[in-house]
Amino acid sequence: MKETALYNSHVQLGAKLVPFAGYKMPVSYSNGIQSEYFAVRDEVGIFDVSHMGEFTIDGSGAEAFLQKMTINDVEKLQVGEAQYSAMCYPNGGIVDDLILYRKSDGYFMVVNASNIQKNFDWLSEHKTENVNLKNVSEDYSLIAIQGPKSRDILSTYTHANLKMPFYSFEDALVCGYPVMVSRTGYTGELGFEIYGDANSLVYIWDELINLGVKPAGLAARDILRMEMKYCLYGNDIDKTTNPIEAGLSWITALSKGDFIGKDALLEIKKNGSTRQLISFAMEERGIPRQGYEVFVDSKRVGIVASGTQSPQLKTGIGLAYVNKPFHKTGQNISI
Fold it and tell me: Is the separation of the CB atoms in 307 and 288 below 8 Å?
């Protein structure tokens, strides 16, 4: 089991550590999940997400290669911009969702921790000679500072343009260390993600903790992303789901040139998907969990993909795949 560079800090902060994607990761800290959740929604919190995977892709054929491998339109990506995207199998099933950054000297891809080797093998299998592909996951640590006060807090430590648009980034000094600051996140709040080497990120993390910023773990992160209907690979998307039914048509550039999975996705778009990923809130007590069945008038119409208790809404919430036509807003379902 691997440890991130911030492992010792997690132990000192009283974290409950659990195995996640091959790492010992903090699921929560001593103050509890609700406290961490409200810190992010109301003020600011920080997450260790160093388990995520990072690849560099460059060379004269890099753009064409990424156009073929990912479903979003890479040609639209300018230097200093990031793009949410995914990779698909020929049948339209999802290999992984990802963020692609365009740097002046090539591309930087961030993938899910559980899929690092699978993704690297998939990219390597299709790589052409004029493309350089490197797995640099071990070279990077990553922290996310999220919440309405994240900009004010971070501005104390950097001259980076923190008013940069959503899904953009710049290389900058934070606490005097050279890092990449990205206006991205998995919470739905104003926030930034900071990529750098282990020493830099440990120092920045400690500075923020000493300032009083609350650390937040995987459990709070899961609630925050679910409230936003952000997909989690392995729950809401995987090789058996496609971007159309998962609500990811907005990142699927069917009008661009050929890419892996395009023909299958065009067919699904033309014929219409038979089910759709929906978000729901419980009217009665109970927490929905992955695998629970969804019914309408005693007829099974779907399955829960993700579920939790929302501290803000004070009720159970979740995401589920529901057969059409029962996917429409306002539909009553039973779980």
Answer: yes
Going by pLDDT thresholds of 50, 70 and 90, the confidence category of residue 73 is very high
Confidence of residue 177 (pLDDT cuts 50, 70, 90): very high
Rounded Cα distance, 12 and 9, in Å? 5
Amino acid at 21: A
DSSP 235: T
Q: Is 234 helix (H, G, I), strand (E, B) or coil?
A: coil
State the Cα torsion 318-319-320-323 to the nearest 10°.
Answer: 120
Residue 232: CB atoms within 10 Å: 19
pTM, two decimals, is 0.96
* CA–CA dist 227, 288 (Å, integer): 14
**Structural domains of the chain sorted by starting position, each given as residue range(s) with its CATH number in brackets:** 2-50+140-226 (3.30.1360.120), 51-135+242-271 (3.30.70.1400)
CB count within 10 Å of CB 154 equals 21
- Give the C-alpha separation, 173 to 156, whole Å: 12
Res 144: pLDDT = 99
Q: What DSSP state is assigned to residue 327?
A: T
